[in-house]
Amino acid sequence: MAAAAAQTLRAAETRPNLVYILADDHAGYVLGCDGNAMARTPNLDRLASEGTRFAAHYCNSPVCTPSRQSFLTGQMPHMAGVTRLPTPLAEDKPTLARQLKQEGYTTAVFGKMHFNVPCRSGLHGFDVACTEDRVTRLWNQNVKPKPVPAGVATKPAWHPFKDPARIWLNADELPYPRYEADMRSLYQLRMAEEFLDAHKQKPFAMWFSLMEPHSPYDFPIEDQGRFDSARFTPPKVGSEDGPQIPLIFRNLSDKDKRGIIASYYTSVEYVDRNVGRLLDALRRRGLDRNTLVIYHADHGYSLGQHGRFEKHCGYDPALRVPLLMRWPGKIREGVVKDMTEHVDVPATIVDLMNLERLPIQHGQSLRPYLEARRMDSPRSWIFSEYLENEEAYVRTDHWKFIFCSGKRKRDDGYVTEDPTPGRYVRLFDHRNDPGEFTNVAAGNRGVVDKMQTLMLKRFRTTHPEAASEPQRLSVEESLDWYVRPRDV
After folding, report:
1. Rounded Cα–Cα distance for residues 370 and 344 (Å)
2. Which pLDDT value is given to residue 14?
3. Of 67, 88, 151, 456, which is most buried by a Cβ count within 10 Å?
């Protein structure tokens, strides 16, 4: 019996496991290893030091559902068929989980995936499926929380856009009304550990997707007061920002903004602690050496930049996210400064784990970076889109370009004083204006033309309806046609 178990364990060790850790709304700049001295992320910093950190990694959509279904399928959001928050991923779409399952992996997910359908086993290729609806239901059923003393102030129920923004963005820095032992993320972690115990002797691929630090930036009672809000300085608002600041944020005071930032940083620290717990769980079971661990977030987040406290836009704080990869002895320790995109992550996984390519694969493998080899074609620009507002973005090391049709009244709650301003472009010179404050499009027509050409090239090579693009349109009219959401 012992010999058979040893043989099974050796067979498992010949193929790496995968642990895919996702955070919700974790901005790339709120990370100690990114140079942020205020961020308390020791576990993520350690993970970065033990593997490869991609310092210029960008999402392909700054909103949860499109971003998540894009890197699950390996397709740009418009090809995956999910470009708006409420859209479910079609059942017939190929996914990374299905690819792993076909290769003999047991697949599991614990936490938030934004599938927008009820959880069930087998969903999108996951043998064990405990998405946010099921995790929350089981947590409420099985965890009887310790009573909170009457004198302890906690946050109210989350009612975004119904309550004032300062309430649903937790400007008062209030904890979730539970002690840490009774928090949902810890319950979710116990579920993941049970899965590890049951499957540690055969290849597995496990998604562990936290619901923090998404607003209202949950953290347990013990974490209240971890950050002094007075130490934070809200980002300045530029002279051109006024008209595009969502109305919902117009009444936030400076004190409110400081409290919101402090709450977010507290929630990020809570995320880091739970990531550390999961990494320790792998180590205690002897699984850390033969497991590819990936950490990233669905998209970034603005904490007052340009007057915004959300994503849903093309400024860098909303687009740049952490990306960390570790596989001891297989992945080098270091930092990659070339630009990378979310769709590169599934392409890298199937390459590094020697799986069959995804049927449609819009990203490129980052394996050369991980093995300290030269990248044949490093990205010189990245693409992202937010079709709820009919806009798209191109970012190079020099320029940020934003194109918007200006024709669609957005339905995400972040309406501005001019909901349908008509077509506009914005161009920012990142070398001289890293905060993206001054639109220099008018004086750089040649650069605008180049950025529009790059954007149109990405749409034409990845869009499912490219063959039906109307003829004899101008470049701007063609972009108007492509940025329309077509979700079913």
Report:
1. 13
2. 65
3. 67
Cα–Cα–Cα angle for 412, 415, 420, nearest 5°?
110
Answer whether residue 469 is part of any domain: yes
Residues 209, 141 within the same domain: yes
The residue segments making up the domain with residue 302 are 15-379
Domain boundary among 353, 379, 405: 379
Adjacency order of strands within the sheet including 399-404? 381-386, 391-396, 399-404, 424-429
**Where do the DSSP E strands lie in 75-191?**
106-111, 128-131
Query: What average pLDDT does this structure show over 108-127?
Result: 97
Among left, alpha and beta (phi > 0; psi -120 to 50; other), residue 462 is alpha
Distance from C-alpha of 306 to C-alpha of 450, rounded to nearest angstrom: 26
Please report the DSSP string for 407-461 in residue order.
-S---SS---SSS----EEEEEETTT-TT-----GGG-HHHHHHHHHHHHHHHHH
Strands, DSSP E only, in 159-232? 204-213
* Residue 24 falls inside a structural domain: yes
Residue 487 maps to a domain: no
- In this prediction, residues 103-127 reach a mean pLDDT of 97
CB atoms within 10 A of CB 17: 25
Residue 390 resides in a domain: yes
pLDDT averaged over every residue in the chain: 95
Beta bridge partners of 340: 57
Let me know whether 358 and 388 are in one domain. Answer: no
Clarify whether residues 60 and 46 are in a common domain.
yes
Decide if 75 contacts 92 (C-beta within 8 A).
no
